[in-house]
Amino acid sequence: MARWRWVFLPLGLLVSLGALLLLADSLLRLYTVLALLSPLLARATLGAIVLLGLASVGVGIYRLWPFLRPRRHRRLQSPRHSGEAATVNLRAVQSQVEQIQDQVARQALQQKALDLQSDRNTRALTIAVFGVGSAGKTALINGLLGQSVGEIGASMGTTQVQQTYPWTIANSPRELHIIDTPGIAEVGIAGTEREAGARKTAAAADLIVFVIDDDLRQAEYAVLKSLVEIGKRLLLVLNKADRYVESDLEALLDRLRSRVVPPLSSDDVVAVAALPQPLPRLGGGWLQMQPNLLPLQTRLADLLRQEGETLIADNLLLQSQQIGEAARQLIDGQRQTQADAIIDRYQWLGAGAIAITPLPGLDFLATAAINAQMVVELSQIYGCEVSLEEGKALALSVAKTLTGLGLVKGTLDLLALGLQTNLATVVAGRALKGASGAYLTRIAGKSFVEYFRENQSWGDGGMSAVVEQQFRLNQRDTVMKAFIREAIARVVPMV
Ligand SMILES: Nc1nc2c(ncn2[C@@H]2O[C@H](COP(=O)(O)OP(=O)(O)OP(=O)(O)O)[C@@H](O)[C@H]2O)c(=O)[nH]1
Ligand SMILES: [Mg+2]
To answer: Which parts of 230-293 fold into alpha helices (H)?
Structure first.
């Protein structure tokens, strides 16, 4: 519909213009005729017709407006929509988790999924106060809560362990939990560990209050961007506003607002002074400014009123997606281990026979090496169930690709050096053929794994790109050295 309305628009305008000209001509004629009878009657009739016309145009625009008006992009889905999506996703995740063989990992993810489901309608809304050390996170929480709950200190690392405080605010749909987190970007191993914990808490919270006390540093910007990118909702709070004169503060806020990325809007960037420090007066003495958290309190109240349930539903969806991703990675690792064992078995299975069979030229080496049964077994691990006939066809095309790309010759050259320096010439010749067969099986096997991982697709670059990439990856020095060592141990006794 959106495109068609722009095709109809010029057409409609043209027809309307024609009709308008005709109408004007008819009106003029009518007016002339009536004016001969009575000029007053002519004017009254014309006036009535013009009024009627204007009214029709008004009604027309009113009716057509819904089709013509540009549609606004809805940033948020309704809580119901997100909640339903999360339920569907959690169900899918649960069956995915069941495929995990490692019992401890499986149970941990199952528990996470259960926890997400169990108290979804009653649990508190969590707000993580997050940012670099000494930005004033604890001071801000003390200010919001109206009591001194956490220790404040000038040096970084004052808050070492995260703390959760219950909180209430007008219009909030739920009870609130505000979490004070240790600072990020602190030096040392302990600091790095604390940061990891703080990031985890932030990633799990329904809303993040990201506190800064100056322009966004590179490290802060990178963390902020990554949180927004994974779908976290956050407010950016510039604390210590008392340190700036008004014009500088406005300029800084403008700069911060210009740097935030959607879905963050400029309303989501506010300046506060949680705990202003005394300033020296010109004439002597000190000036103590009052704390000002109002911009944050107002924004939070608005946000919780407008998006409160959506925040929870969106976060539920995000958390369930993260469980799904964790399960996917575990299953992928588990499949990879099984696939590696199969490739390992098949690569040495044919190596001995290839070593002692005189092959009619190099080109047949790849075809002789790659076993269709290996393709079938690999496909089963990835739930693709390829038949032996299909396995044969796939094995043949990968063998042709290996030959076509010159990788059979490449393999021989690569292995020759390693084997010749380790073995006597007579043995080395046969061992080289056997080891090359094993190596080509390995490259083919790894390529099939990629193919099955991608749901039986070779991707944009096709089969050649995958095979070439696997050849390159296995060429690495450490992989190569381990392979030659094993080839000598396994192939030499067979020749
Ligand atoms: N000028 C000024 N200083 C502030 C303000 N808020 C906090 N501070 C000071 O900033 C310093 C750090 O405050 P904290 O609240 O401990 O900072 P934090 O972010 O919790 O620090 P860590 O727990 O170490 O991560 C303290 O010296 C506070 O007095 C403010 O609004 N203005
Ligand atoms: Mg603190």
So the answer is: 246-259
Assigned fold of 98-278+285-325: Rossmann fold (3.40.50)
Domain boundaries, the chain: 4-68, 98-278+285-325, 350-494
pLDDT at 7: 67
Q: Answer yes or no: is the C-beta of 300 below 6 A from any ligand 1 atom.
A: no
Pocket lining: 183 vs ligand 1, CB cutoff 6 Å: yes
Residue 423 confidence (pLDDT) = 62
Q: Is 278 exposed, middle or buried (0-12, 13-18, 19+ CB in 10 A)?
A: exposed
Q: Which residues have CB under 8 Å from 170's CB, separation 6+?
A: 301
Closest CA to 323 of 120, 115, 118: 115
Q: Tell me the HSE value of 278 on the side-chain side, using a 13 A CA sphere.
A: 7
Nearest listed ligand to the Cα of residue 183: 1
**CB contact set of 381 (below 8 Å; sequence gap of 6+):** 335, 338, 339, 342, 452
Question: Is the confidence at residue 3, as pLDDT, over 70?
Answer: no
Beta strands in 253-405 (DSSP E): 269-271, 279-280, 286-287
CB distance 252 to 215 below 8 Å: yes
Taking the whole predicted model, whether its pTM rises above 0.70 is answered as: no
Neighbours of ion ligand 2 (CB under 5 A): 137-138, 158-159
Collapsed DSSP state (helix, strand, coil) of residue 234: strand
Average of per-residue pLDDT values in the chain: 87
Cis peptide preceding 10, ω within 30 of 0:
no
The stretches of 69-166 forming alpha helices (DSSP H) are: 79-97, 103-118, 137-145
Decide whether any atom of ligand 1 lies within 6 Å of the 282 Cβ.
Answer: no
Residue 152 beta carbon below 6 angstroms from any ligand 1 atom: yes
Q: Which atom of ligand 1 is nearest to the CA of 211?
A: 19
Predicted pLDDT of residue 73: 38
